[in-house]
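Lab notebook, bench 4. The sequencing result for the construct came back, and we need a structural model before the next group meeting so we can plan mutations. Quick request posted to the team channel:

Model the 3D structure of this chain.
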Amino acid sequence: MMIRLVLALLLVALAPTAIAAPSRLIILRHGEKANDWKLCDIGEQRAKALALTYLGKSAAKSLFADGAEPAFFFAITLHTLELASPSVASWNKPLILYSVVPESGESKEDFTKKLNRRTQEAARGLLDNPALKGKTVVVVWEHKHIANEELDTKFEREGVTLRQLLNLDILPGVPKTWPDDTYDYFWIVDFLPDSNVPSKFTMVKQEFGTSFPNVPANDWGAPDGLDQASGCKAKD
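Done. Here's the predicted structure in token form:
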């Protein structure tokens, strides 16, 4: 990890021009899903809760500093688009979609390959777009392509998770895998000025109080308690 950090800092020092990167990324996964195309009722409730509590305009516990607002929201699948939509709409802002849509009869391997490629493209877009420099960007993504040790090992040379592609593995405390049952956390990543080197990692739990009592608030890695009767699809 220390070697990777030193190399990253050297790349910044040797770069002929300043690298365009956001000052902060707020990363989260999609909500609980009913099937491959849409969220279940609980996932829809989570989307509304996030807009009202953390990510929307005038949110009760806004993750944005006073007077600040998100530059853009990024999403990749129908699930992530659905989760982000209430928050995006509250700001009257566009959403950048690196779209991956499931196809009938498509193998899991082929779908993963599409997610790999689009995640790589999104990571480049996050780190090299001058319009995002110094801004806060919300990234709603598929959890296995945020962090997954198995994928990181299998595709070590090319990088297919945000954890790899954004160099989050140089920071202490960044989990190697995002658990299947965990929907209720944010990863907040801060970057050094004029660089693409992440400098700080914070994990924040989503807490909605009594306003959304059916939305799970389990600890990181703990079961979410949802069964078949919830209407939500079983985990992979």
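The longest helix spans residues 108-128.
Will bring this to the meeting.
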